[in-house]
Amino acid sequence: MPTYEYKCQKCQRQFDVFQRMTDAPLTECSDCHGPLKRLIGAGAGFIFKGSGFYITDYRSDSYKQAERRASSDTGSSSSSTSSSSTAKSSTAETKKP
C-alpha cells in the first residue's frame, strides 16, 4: 500500500497517510476540518536485493584482469619482505655469544 502526502489548505499542516490505492482521497483535515490537498510524492526509492546489484559484478574483463595482477603483485612483494626480515632476525641471534 502506498503512502500519500496531504496538506491542509487552512492550517497548512502536512502529513502522510498509509492508504490503499482504491481508497478515496481524504478531503477534511482532522485538526481544523479545513480542506485537504493531496500532494505529489517522490515515491519510493529502488531497493536492490539479492546478488547481481553490486558495482563489482559488472566490471569488464580487462578491469578484472588488471585487478588480479595488482593483487598478486602486492601479495608477492609482502611475502619477500617478511622472509627477508625473518632472515635478518635469525642472523642477529646467531652472532650473540
Could you estimate the helical fraction of the residues in percent? 25-40%
Largest sheet: 3 strands, antiparallel
N→C terminal distance: 82 Å
Strand content: 15-25%
The Rg value, from CA coordinates, equals: 33 Å
- Average pLDDT metric: 75
Can you characterise this structure?
By secondary structure, the chain is α+β, with helices and mostly antiparallel strands. The protein has a domain at 3-39. It contains one helix and three strands; from the N terminus they run βββα. It has a three-stranded antiparallel β-sheet with strand order 2-1-3, with no helix packed on it. 1% of the residues are buried. Mean pLDDT is 75; it is low at 78-87.
Record the SSE blueprint.
Elements: E1 3-8, E2 14-18, E3 36-39, H1 61-95
Write a brief caption for the model.
With 97 residues, the chain is of the alpha+beta class.
Task: For this entry, give a set of tags.
single chain; alpha+beta; 15% strand; rod-shaped
